[in-house]
Amino acid sequence: MTVKLDSSVQYLKGVGEQRAKLFGKLGITTVKDLLQHYPRGYIDLSAPCEISSAPNEEICAVRGVVIKKSQEIRLKGGRKMYKVLAADDTGVLELIFFNTKYTVDALDYDTPYLFYGRVQGNLLRKQMSAPAVYPADGDQPFISVYPLTAGLSNKVLSNIIRQALQQVDGQLPELLPDKIRALYQLEEISQALKNIHHPVSMQEMERARRRFMFEELFCLAVGVSLLKKRNLTKQGYPMKPQEMSAFYEALPFILTGAQQKAIDEILSDMQKNVPANRLVQGDVGSGKTMVAMAAAYFAYLNGAQSALMAPTEILARQHYQGLSALADKLGMKTDLLVGSMTAAQKRKAKEKLLCGETDLCIGTHALLSEGVDFQNLQLVITDEQHRFGVAQRTALQEKGKQPHTLVMSATPIPRTLALMIYGELDISIIDELPPNRQPVRTYRIGSDKRKRAFGFIRDHLDQGLQAFIVCPLVEQGEEDTGLQAATEYMLDISTQFFSGYTVGLLHGKMKAADKEKVMGDFSSGLIQLLISTTVVEVGVDVPNAVIMMVENAERFGLSQLHQLRGRVGRGCVQSHCILLTDSKNPDTLQRVDMMCKSNNGFEIAEYDLKTRGPGNFLGHEQHGLPHLKIADLTTDVTLVADAQQAANEVLEKDPDLSSPSHQALRETIIGLLNKVGERPN
Ligand code: ADP
Ligand code: MG
Q1: Residues 405 and 512 in one domain
Q2: What distance in angstroms lies between residue 382's CA and the mean position of ligand 1's atoms?
């Protein structure tokens, strides 16, 4: 029996509806998806552990012979359990099987087996629950370990993949042109596919992995290049030079050199024939908002409308408050559009957009909704761009005709990554903070010092200053997680340690109107101490707030902690960041200590990337790109560069991938770009 690559996995033996659902959770619907579900690691069966030295709580393969099988044990709910003792020269291992009478019966005495699973227990009694069993002298030198989901075992998945490889009709299309494969010494697809799933040696496995990593990076590079090229062929609306001095004079401060440079770059882009497409990257507090406002003012002088989209309502309203005062001075009309406004308010805002009364509209995702139409939208700005996917950015662009685009991000991205992720954007970097900013002092403490920290906060509140305390949870659930939750925390401390002070609570589960009231009261100084979750992370700007204390600091990524810390240190008073953790894990403590050593977002991001990997640092939602299955943009730096180079070579000769030999590649790229909401041409 053969199956087609694009058939549903349900055509394979052993895949019923239930299992197909589990596969769906892993992103596998077709046989092709299944073949592209690469192992995340391999277990070398040629080097099993001895029982006595099998590491506790770790997954490993142990070699042993069966010396005893127990009677069937009936558990509650009708489940059956079997205990089997296996031994080698060094000790005895208890194996527990559930509901698998057949497997247990089939075990011979005195024949060596490999048992693969997690070892638990103590020195006296080692146990392995539901192990996978392999003959010790089998011809399979490695077990491929696949990414799994609950309810699907590695053995089952691995058998189904083996079956698919044997039965598949034809082969996966070769995406890499022969020349590229020869140049970079990459193995051909069908060979590589066999070797990645069932390698015979480590060398073969490495070769196969390298090929697939290269393929993945190559496709990404081709896709991003096409996006960029598409943008360059668009007809934009070149704007005219304008006298900007009124803007600079209306500001209460002088712009930093880096801000001015970014403004010059974006204004010069906006005067070109192709639409501007620029990323402004700058550490928290570097003053990106004014760069955006300068661009919006420039558009206004050119008779065009602008839209500024922020990821949260708090942030949108704050931008609105800050920018509308400045806009008033300049004769420019601003408006707000966010989800929590009443239907009547929204209707009014939409009318003003359509008839061109509003020059700059500030809002959230609400700007993307149907029925929001502009008279003449020519500049689209996205704040905290890493919070949006490419698709959302595109949706906002589509509200205009090829508008100029400016995106702003505080998540610093190392250069190699930026090229891949933002390859279609030009980049301005604001690498300078406004003058008179004192670096925030950062400390790590344990909960034994919490009371002292509260005293320290009180001293500052007494001076008319303000503070934040951030907790990882909104409220305590049923399970004891050992984590602080903002709701209970607020009740505790406002009566015990901060009676006589005004304490506010802010979290994501509150209604938008309530959140906004609390944030407004904090901005105006009515609330002195704000207990919050990470909703304050993004962009909130209250210069009078000088202390940021974070509970369970170990629970946050460094870039996130850096964002949180960026909420203070915005005025001219010395600010402090107190990171509280009771973690004993040396790696965790070292990570948190990195915060005490550095105030530089780029440095911190590099470190975060090195220690946690990009999976955590840049989730799919962080950059809007499709998830990489096998390659790693940060560790495979040479491969990234090679793939980029190869993509350039291919596109130089065949810019639209229209040659028949590139058909499969073209189709794959279109699929890839559809996933991020963009199409080439
Ligand atoms: P971010 O880059 O994090 O978005 P903001 O644009 O919110 O930073 O700016 C942070 C604070 O710095 C704001 O209060 C803003 O008014 C102020 N600011 C911006 N530029 C300057 C400057 N050149 N000199 C002094 N203060 C500035
Ligand atoms: Mg900002």
Answers
A1: no
A2: 17
